[in-house]
């Protein structure tokens, strides 16, 4: 049985940036992307359709970064989700990236 590989050490490549993981930030590739961005020093905002899963993901990310990410429960289509994020002041910062 092979050992689980250790994560690559952080180089703080995203320090000072905000990363938006739009849809699926609570699980799978979206969560993995958010986690890695946090490990690289970014603030993150995540969204998901499932409130419980989103909360659990936010808790895990807060353990890594010491700061709870902005979370948005999606109840709309993609355009509506973007509009929901834009309403949050934390997402209207210079250097926001988008993952989808």
Could you characterize what this model shows?
This protein has 100 residues and is of the alpha/beta class. The chain has a single domain, classed as 3-Layer(aba) Sandwich (Rossmann fold). The protein has three helices and four strands, in the order E-H-E-H-E-H-E. The chain has a four-stranded parallel sheet with strand order 3-2-1-4, with helices on both faces. Strand 2 (43-48), helix 2 (51-65) and strand 3 form a beta-alpha-beta unit. Helix 1 (28-39) packs parallel to helix 2 (51-65). Mean pLDDT is 80; it is low at 93-100.
* CATH topology heading: Rossmann fold
Stretches where pLDDT is under 50 for at least 5 consecutive residues are 93-100
Q: CATH H-level name... which superfamily?
A: NAD(P)-binding Rossmann-like Domain
The chain-level mean pLDDT equals 80
H and E order? EHEHEHE
Distance between the termini: 34 Å
Number of strands: 4
Instruction: Please report the first level of CATH classification, the CATH class.
Output: Alpha Beta
In total, how many domains does the architecture comprise?
1
Largest sheet descriptor: 4 strands, parallel
Helix percent reads 25-40%
Tell me what portion of residues adopts beta-strand conformation: 15-25%
Structural class: alpha/beta
Please write out the topology:
Elements (H helix, E strand, L loop, with lengths): L17 E4 L6 H12 L3 E6 L2 H15 L4 E4 L4 H10 L8 E4 L1
Parallel strand pairs: 1-2, 1-4, 2-3
Structure at a glance:
The protein is of the alpha/beta class and 100 residues long. It has helices at residues 28-39, 51-65, 78-87, and strands at residues 18-21, 43-48, 70-73, 96-99.
């Amino acid at each position: 049985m092979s050992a689980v590989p250790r994560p690559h050490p952080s180089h703080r490549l995203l320090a000072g940036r905000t990363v938006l993981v739009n849809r699926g930030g609570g699980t799978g590739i979206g969560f993995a992307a958010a986690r890695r961005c946090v490990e690289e020093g970014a603030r993150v905002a995540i969204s998901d359709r499932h409130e419980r899963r989103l909360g659990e993901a936010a808790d895990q990310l807060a353990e890594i970064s010491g700061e709870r990410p902005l979370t948005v429960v999606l109840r709309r289509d993609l355009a509506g989700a973007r509009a929901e994020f834009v309403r949050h002041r934390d997402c209207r910062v210079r250097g926001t990236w988008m993952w989808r």
